[in-house]
Amino acid sequence: MEWFADWFNSKYYHILYQKRDDKEAEQFLSILQKFFKKEDKILDVACGSGRHTIHLNNLGYNTTGIDLSEESITSAKQKSYNEITFDVWDMRKLYKKEYFDVVLNLFTSFGYFDSDKEDFETIQTISKNLKNEGILIIDFFNSKKIISNLVEFEQKTLSGITFKINRKIEKGFIIKNIQFTDSGKKFEFTEKVKALKLSDFIKLLNFAQLEITNIFGDYKLNEYEPVDSDRLIIVAKKWK
To answer: What is the model's pTM?
Structure first.
């Protein structure tokens, strides 16, 4: 099984990341609204438990969320009070051809695949969900800053479970090894994300007939600084 299919579908993934800053995410989306129109159909690719999808729907947008993890999609459906479409779906497969005005890929939800070929095919497939002149917004970590400030070991205790986390850089990937014990049983999971840079995304997006219109470096949409910015947030428009 691919690491992301295994780890993201585990209840322990949700325990480890239970303290994500929802307020920050809501503020980010509120600012990001300047790129949307109220009538837009929005697809959240790799939506996780749906926090971005649900917030945008609460703001009045027609939103759909897809994710490979059945656990995450079940959680998203339970959290949603409105009728939002949430589907278990692999981003490598076309969802609805030329149907959406906006596609989102947020919170470092790309770069999971071993081969560059699969990255190119996946970004092309994501693009095919967009109407002509639709926009794709990618929110990725700033790999340069992550690498220069790498924390090699960290320990966190959440919901009575102590997670031991080791990080390393290997063959162009930022790898996180996660070990813990629960009810006397030992567990081990891996996160493995490609250290993609802006130059890599330029190549990927051009291949998928997407032209970059804006680049930001944080959730307040400040200017992107290659060394100091926390995030790499890209807005790209699909060619006619």
So the answer is: 0.95
